[in-house]
Fold this protein.
Amino acid sequence: MRTGGRDAVVLDRDGLDGLIVLLAARGRTVIGPTVRDGAIVLAEISAGGDLPYGWGVDLEAGRYRLRPRTDGAAFAHSAGPQSWKTFLHPQRERQWTARTGPDGVPLVTEDDTPPPSYAFLGVRPCDLRAIQVQDRVLTDGPHTDPRYRRRRERAFLVVVECTEPGATCFCVSMGTGPAADRGYDLALTEVVDDGGHRFLARSASDEGSAVLAELPTRPADDGLRAAAREGVAQAAGRMGRAMPDVDLRVLMHETLTADRWNDVTARCLTCGNCTMVCPTCFCTTAEDVTDLTGEHTERWRRWESCYDLEFTHLQNGPVRASALSRYRQWATHKLGTWYDQFGSSGCVGCGRCIVWCPTGIDITEEAHALNQERAEARQAAS
Amino acid sequence: MNAPAVAAGPSARPAGPPLPYRVEARTVDAPDVATIVLEPAGEALPRFAPGQFAMVYAFGAGDIPLSVSSIEGDRLTHTVRAVGAISRALHGTRTGRTVGVRGPFGTGWGLGASVGRDLLVVAGGIGLAPLRPVVRGALAAPGRYGRLNVLIGARTPGDRLYAHETNNWREAGARVLTTVDRPDGGWTGDVGVVTTLLDRAVFDPPHTTAFVCGPEVMIRAAARELTHRGLGPDRIEVSLERTMHCGTGHCGHCQLGPVLLCRDGPVLDWARAERLVSVPEL
């Protein structure tokens, strides 16, 4: 946490509202949290009034409820049903169009419509890490997803450090929060106390500094810096959940045939909710759409879930036919094989998969159970 | 046609749209298998290596991964079995029509690391397609490798691929053995799984590299048998298959445990592949 940086300044609530207006005036599409349909969702916002001032959330496995707060905080809520991949790696995207040319040869045109210049307001540190995880997947390999890269390169990120973790949060045990230390343009820490409602703000990019310079701010005093530090430190101590303190990659590797997979499979509906809400799940399917004349065709890619039987379809049917194999694929990928494929964990500890699982499957509970089964097997063998 | 067919973007980028290739020739190898020879209609893709694959696009239907069964300059040859909507469309593409191609993708066979060694090619069914460039490459470089064995398994005599060409291989000095699962009236050759041919292959196990492709059950059986016979697991190369939608490592379909098969495969050595194909439904 860089609350002591040279450029740490104080932004009050009007200043935060001004930030939204300023970012929009700079030509950016500002996306932030807002209350809609009984949840805090991410959507385009145009004024401070769109933010969820005074709303918190109660989270448990399979349960999400809005809860009014008396302190009027704007960012005292943890992960909602969406994540920033909705905008950076959208659910449906056209990749190219093709039409039959004069000599019968298809003319293929890549879809290169300029994407919006997004400003994301209220990125939690766990979600910032999730964006960085998707960066590795979609731009760091031998091939780059050109449309993702363009959206990502143009995006302006305003992180808000977490001071109010939910009961399903476990970012501390994944090393992804609740503080943010790099990879953003601006970082805010919300403080509501006797001194008022304000935000400690600091910049980590030229554009971030330019934006701050245009807002009404005042230098941060030591008291506010300490309060911000304390808020984040307390959040770290109030995590609702934790992963077992072992090397999860090794755990997944060593428990591929554990009995516990049968247990969790009895509860898993293979609905794919966890993959939709996960901020790092990136899998997609390619679809071709042809018009009635057959002379014009479009290639779309859309989100796909590894729980779908079609996902692994080969000539003789799906490779992962059983529910066991599909839940195991998802969990071992997140916690284990993601390291092999992309050099990091695929889980950032945001807890969304726990909240939005209709049967309340808890990936931390499953990891603890696998760890215990492995320990018992080792004990029995010794 | 020499006019640029791709209107936007650096077209040879594999994550971009496909390049048009014209079907120059089409031969039917078996009732459900055809080989198409593709010539670039404009710009050509970078050169493919044996074992790599292309994403081949049937206009309006979609694209599927297809290994190259021959590479001559910019000309690509693919052998495709009609099993789904896209492969049926490609299988039925007539000469003169255009398909889209992206690539090259994936790892190739390690022929370069096998100089001076005996070569053992083990193919089941359509698995002979990606291995054909290995055989051709070895025969085109006399003296570069040791003995060349080509063991071929097919469902029926009528399902044998490149039957005329395999005779040429034999005449050029390769030991070519073929077995079928179901013989018909005229078949006097071997019957049974391809591993039964190993007894008659001539190779020195510690100094042999094996290249194996076919149904996964056959790959497992062949690789295990070869290990028993003394080949090192790192000297057994297998080519595996999983669903693929992009070829560029972004769609996630081709995961096999720690491996993205489009990027880290399709050719893997048995030291790495054994566990991956031994855990059911991994």
In short: Residues 1-6 of chain A have pLDDT under 50 and may be disordered. Chain A has two domains: 9-237, 248-381.
